[in-house]
Specification:
Largest sheet: 6 strands, antiparallel
Strand content: over 45%
Mean pLDDT: 82
Helix content: 10-25%
Low-confidence stretches: 1-10, 12-24
Shape: elongated
Number of helices: 2
Radius of gyration: 26 Å
Structural class: mainly beta
Number of strands: 10
Distance between the termini: 55 Å
Length: 149
């Protein structure tokens, strides 16, 4: 008789567990934001890189500018430089957005204002960051960011 009661209690418990709504168990979680930075490069005598944070189909890009290396011992402090920066996002041949900004750089790392764009799910956003200052020319740095929604 105890075996029958245990079997009945187990069956009742399993039927209660099955009564949990399926939507709560199968609701997909929002993807966590993923930040990726491209390889750095020298532009206008400074070290630059571009980074992007992907959250679903939304991509937020920033450019970073820093000294290419530590100053030589005994050298004077770096003079402020007026820089022109361009941050661009594209998907295939379609340009998603562009942000041009003037930046004054001294000796500490500078981050540009962010550029936020929306991209099609499952696509790749190509980001480019360029910095120019007379008499230097720019050599843009890039990063490719896959979107997953």
């Amino acid at each position: 008789m105890t075996r029958t009661l245990l079997l009945a209690a187990g069956t009742a418990a399993l039927s209660l567990l099955g009564a949990v709504p399926a939507t709560a168990a199968s609701a997909p979680a929002d993807p966590a934001p993923v930040t990726t930075c491209g390889y750095g490069g020298l532009q206008s005598g400074l070290w630059t890189k571009v980074c992007g944070t992907v959250y679903g189909g939304t991509v937020t890009l920033t450019g970073q500018i820093s000294l290419a290396g530590p100053p030589s011992p005994g050298s004077p402090a770096p003079q402020p430089q007026q820089l022109s920066t361009t941050l661009t996002a594209s998907q295939g041949t379609q340009q998603l957005g562009q942000l041009q900004q003037g930046v004054i750089f001294t000796a500490s790392t500078v981050q540009t204002n962010p550029l936020t764009v929306n991209a099609a799910c499952g696509s790749t956003v190509h980001a480019t960051f360029s910095v120019s200052s007379y008499p230097w020319y720019n050599t843009p740095v890039t990063v490719d960011l896959p979107t997953a929604c």
